[in-house]
Design a protein that fits this description.
The complex is a heterodimer of chains A (about 260) and B (about 325). Chain A has about 260 residues and is mainly alpha-helical. Chain A contains 12 helices and no strands. By secondary structure, chain B is an alpha/beta fold. The chains are: A mainly alpha (about 260), B alpha/beta (about 325). Chains A and B meet through α1 and α5 of A and α2 of B.
Chain lengths: ~260, ~325
């Protein structure tokens, strides 16, 4: 990878660490330990299901909140504070800045997810006393959650490249909610006819399909996940992120920094 | 080779709710800065100095025109490895220490890892920042941040340095140090292009200056050349709104402000002007010799433009 992108990404990661973003792990650890102790006392035979459901959902939500709230400020904050001036007056291309920021945030989320995953497995071990072979699918669910973060990071960056942080947060969060029901939206679009069908189909396929990336329930119920799904989701998330990131670059390349 | 060639750069912003009203921030600017000179870009606040610098740095896109820096297209990112830039009132990543910030900027500018530590210590010492290891930038004073800004601009040993209001936020001693630093850079063969509205700094430092006002270049040249044009002049002020034809005949430049008239004319015409005023029974208010300085030239350029603007305004008003 281009060295300048790596430097921008590492600085973005360092900023997140210094801004105490990883402190969310403490809240996560408290939530999960509390839940594990509680579930261990009140659930009979479904401890594993509850801990996986709760743990993975918390991993996803904590990450989404971080991705949105850091992502929306990645570009706009740099413009507002004028820290960008001394970066772009160096041999740094604007696209390198956007891509570097993206990887920096994605890296922060990956590290955050890694520590939260340790927490999930720890809680699982606490309630189930041992791991089973089926628990390996938790790793697939975590991988899909990271793919979900990649899409959200790229969308937050896209909005941040032309809008205010507040509006960017609203747009990104709205897309996250709509995207979580993308399958329903596609089903609804299939019921319509004519131009309406065309428009609703376009809208349904334009929003990110987060429902396909959500396999938490299947994993909790020990259902198998096909390799086809892994490949499909990987390609989908990479393509969608690349498109959103390209949009962010296209906008940012033309933007006057006042 | 010219260090900077600005070939008709201009900038018009669209303002208003529908962004339909054009606002010209910079009229087509043509300017050449030679290698190895200290060039002052002067003008009052809002004159278009920062807009010009931002365009040269690729932060703002021009409406028209082009520029060449160190013989290459100014949009070529590789040119930026050879230039340094200090923005006006710089702000940096405040969670970093000065050493970390400079290390980051060194990485982005392509300074080899083996040289970075040495270069960082050297430039920090050069701007008078020592004993700051481990101190985050959020704890720095405005003057210290300005020094960090200067350090980052010269960190990668650029051939050409752009400073936007470099003395801003500095105490008198700091200003003196920055002036010395700019002279050192010149002696090292570097070109320094700096914007300021503090004329004393420009007069003390610059080989050449350009004066910009309301987005328009009003004058460019060596300080001595420019000030020579106002040497040996006096300003005669009298009460009234009329300029006697005998004073006009002396070649005076007259500006009517309220109920006073100010005329700038050659010193040798002073007696003739006083005689003319006596003949017309006009009340003389003051006669002031114009100071031979860049300030006099600067004020004259600005006053002239304001008079022109008010004349045009009056003419338009009359026509309407």
């Amino acid at each position: 990878m281009n060295a300048r992108i790596v430097h921008i990404a590492s600085n973005t990661f360092r900023e997140a660490v210094r801004d105490r973003v990883l402190y969310n792990l403490i809240a996560f650890a408290l939530l999960l330990s509390g839940a594990a102790i509680l579930v261990g006392q009140i659930s009979i035979d479904i401890e594993r299901l509850v801990v996986i459901n709760l743990g993975l959902t918390a991993v996803s939500l904590f990450g989404v909140v971080i991705a949105i709230f850091i992502g929306i400020g990645l570009v706009s904050k740099e413009i507002e504070k004028r820290t960008l001036y001394t970066v772009l007056s160096r041999p740094v291309r604007r696209w390198e800045f956007i891509v570097g920021k993206f990887f920096g945030l994605a890296g922060t989320l990956a590290v955050n997810t890694f520590f939260m995953a340790i927490g999930v497995f720890g809680a699982l071990l606490y309630v189930a006393h041992k791991f089973s072979a089926a628990d390996a699918t938790i790793l697939v669910a975590l991988y899909f959650i990271i793919l979900e973060f990649l899409i959200i990071c790229s969308l937050a960056l896209l909005f941040s490249s032309f809008s205010t942080p507040l509006l960017s947060a609203v747009f990104a969060f709205a897309l996250f909610v709509i995207g979580s029901f993308a399958d329903d939206l596609r089903g609804f679009a299939a019921l319509t006819h004519g131009v309406t069908r065309l428009l609703t189909m376009a809208a349904a396929y334009l929003v990110p399909n987060f429902s396909t990336l959500n396999v938490i329930s299947a994993v909790a119920h020990q259902q198998p996940l096909g390799s086809q799904l892994v490949l499909h989701n990987t390609l989908y998330a990479l393509f969608y992120s690349a498109m959103a990131l390209s949009g962010a670059v296209l906008i940012f390349e033309r933007r006057n920094l006042k | 080779m010219a260090a900077i060639e600005i070939l008709g750069l201009e900038k018009t912003y669209k303002v208003g709710f529908w962004r339909k009203r054009p606002k010209r921030a910079l009229l087509p600017l043509h300017l050449t800065v030679e290698e190895g000179e200290i060039f002052g870009f002067l003008g009052p606040n809002g004159a278009g100095k920062t807009t010009t610098l931002k365009m040269l740095m690729g932060l703002v896109f021009p409406t028209a025109g082009t520029a060449r820096i160190l013989g290459r297209e100014w949009t070529d990112p590789e040119v930026k490895a050879q230039i340094g830039f200090l923005p006006e009132q710089p702000y940096f990543y405040d969670y970093l220490t000065a050493h970390e910030l400079l290390d980051y900027y060194g990485q982005l500018s392509g300074v080899p890892a083996r040289d970075r530590k040495h270069r960082i210590n050297e430039v920090l010492a050069r701007v008078g920042l020592t004993d700051i290891k481990g101190l985050q930038l959020r704890k720095f004073s405005k003057g210290m941040l300005q020094r960090v800004g200067i350090a980052q601009a010269i960190l990668h040993d650029p051939k050409l340095v752009f400073f936007d209001e470099p003395m801003s936020g500095l105490d008198p001693l700091g200003r003196r140090e920055v002036r010395d630093l700019m002279e050192q850079l010149k002696h090292e063969g570097k070109t320094v292009f700096f914007s300021t509205h503090i004329l004393f700094d420009a007069e003390a430092l610059c080989d050449r200056v350009a004066i910009i006002h309301q987005g328009e270049l009003r004058g460019v040249g060596a300080v001595e050349e420019l000030t020579a044009s106002v040497q040996g002049k006096v300003e005669v002020v009298w009460q009234g709104t009329q300029v006697p034809s005998s004073i006009k005949a002396l070649g005076a430049e007259c500006h009517v402000t309220g109920d006073t008239v100010r005329a700038v004319l050659d010193e040798k015409q002073q007696d003739a002007a006083i005689d003319a005023l006596r003949r017309e029974r006009i009340r003389l208010i003051a006669i002031t010799p114009l100071r031979t300085s860049l300030e006099a030239y600067f004020v004259e350029k600005l006053q002239r433009s304001e008079t022109t603007a008010s004349t045009v305004g009056t003419a338009v008003g009359t026509k309407a």
